[in-house]
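Q: Sequence in, structure out?
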Amino acid sequence: MGDLLISRVAPGVARVSSVDPFDTLEIHRIDRAHWQQTPERPGIYLLYGTPQNSPRVYIGMSTSNMRSRIRSHHVNASRNWFGVLFAVPVDNPLLCRAIEAELIGAVREANAVDVIADNTAEERRHRNLDDVHVDPAVEKVRDGLQLLLGQDIFLTEVAEEGQLADPPLDRMTPLAREYRGQAATPRPRTEEDPRPATHSYVGAGVVGWGRFEADEPDTRFHVLQGTGWRRATLNPEATTYNNQLRLSEAQDTLVEAGVLDEGSMTFASDHVFENWTLATRTVSGKSSYSGGYHWQPLED
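A: Exactly. Output:
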């Protein structure tokens, strides 16, 4: 969002907006006791709390009135765990479901906090939509929330090729092959699926296949020739810029090595990655994506 302007609207309520007059995004930070100050507008909201000293979030949306949604679903004894809510008005209500789905998916993939979601099926249906308006909106909302939370809850830390990454001390290391989202349900094999493939890629606008090199605990993932890929988008003002830049450089290296073909935007040859998350990011062009959500097993 660039430079931010923080304005106190009322006790327990602050409005955060960009100093850029052409950037209309604003985020309302509201203490739970003052939830009535939630804007009566369409938008996305995030509830944040630390029950039992463990950070927890809930991401929701309303296509008409966020305050009514908060009143009917969250102001009750069973939902009194959150201490603050962040409300983000969205001018186009048609984008709300897709933005909500992408944010929930990103938080789940990052695995940095516990995330509560009521409707997984809805999230799957509205994620990875091929809409040019969704990605910029998601990026701005995500960056603004991260700045206000002071915690990176949307990005997965994964080792680069040839490097080791220490897992968070307070969380168990995720299983190498834990399938989630749409990838959690294997799909029947079709005539278009190459015989060497055991997995197909799940994501808008990209078709691809791969397989693990060996049984667990081996994490190496083999992407097959003919798989599509997308260029990493670089936005210097985004909090993900450094990660996207590293991803772009990694893609450049594979282009120079003849693995990725820029003419057809496909893999010109097979390639083995250290893990399926690095494979996913190369294919998708998204440095926040993780393997468990994007490689769906194929039924024999």
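The longest strand covers residues 4-10.
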